[in-house]
Specification:
The protein is built from eleven helices and no strands. It has one domain. The radius of gyration is 18 Å and the shape is globular. Helix 1 packs parallel to helix 9. It is an all-alpha fold.
């Protein structure tokens, strides 16, 4: 009964999750700087961020946020500030790599909790994700779709997101791939920092 609805959601999500954005940037940086394990835990955090969006969509909170300019702008500025903070960290890593070996900095271990929270906050605070899931749950999903089915949709979306970014983590964590990226690591940090700051400004100033 719900297969047509499910396939529409799955295809829309596939295009959304595969497109470059804050989640992709953060998971990629995690893999290169701290290895596959950090990338996978960050991916899990992104997956739980998806569950956050799905939860407040089911309860109608997303609609409230989208209709309140104050709440929506507050979320935009908070997300922008967080991404600028992450971008600034990358730029700082580039500056520090001028004086110290980038490889030594990049091979430092990162706690599971820190990696998870990084992914969760990056996705959970993204207002573009709020609008995307609001569109899914108001336009694609019918009013007669039961709450249980909507929950199952949410679990699928979170699992699919985690699997996608985990596969990317495995790819970028391959020794030969990571070693080559580490050789140009300081420039990668600079580029990633600029990208995150630009995305932050785009989110804070307007939603495309």
């Amino acid at each position: 009964m719900y297969w047509g609805e499910f396939f529409t959601i799955a295809i829309a999500h596939l295009f959304a999750v595969a497109s470059p954005g804050p989640d992709f940037a953060v998971v990629t940086r995690q893999c290169i700087t701290s290895g596959t394990k950090a990338g996978i835990w960050t991916s899990l955090g992104v997956g739980f961020g998806i569950l956050l969006h799905v939860t407040y969509c089911i309860f109608g909170v997303a609609l409230l946020i989208s209709q309140s300019s104050f709440l929506f702008n507050a979320m935009k500025y908070l997300a922008g500030a967080y991404l600028i903070y992450l971008g600034a960290q990358s730029v700082r890593a580039f500056i520090e790599s001028v004086e110290h070996s980038y490889v030594e900095q990049a091979t430092s271990e990162q706690s599971v909790r820190k990696a998870f929270m990084l992914g969760f906050l990056t996705n959970g605070l993204n207002p573009k994700a709020t609008l995307f899931f609001l569109a899914l749950f108001t336009v694609v999903i019918g009013e007669d779709t039961s709450t249980m089915v909507q929950v199952l949709y949410g679990l699928y979306l979170a699992a699919a997101t985690f699997i996608w970014f985990s596969l990317l983590s495995k790819l970028f964590g391959i020794t030969i791939v990571r070693s080559r990226l580490l050789k140009m690591g300081k420039w990668f940090e600079l580029g990633m920092g600029i990208v995150l700051i630009l995305v932050a400004l785009q989110i804070a100033l307007k939603i495309l």
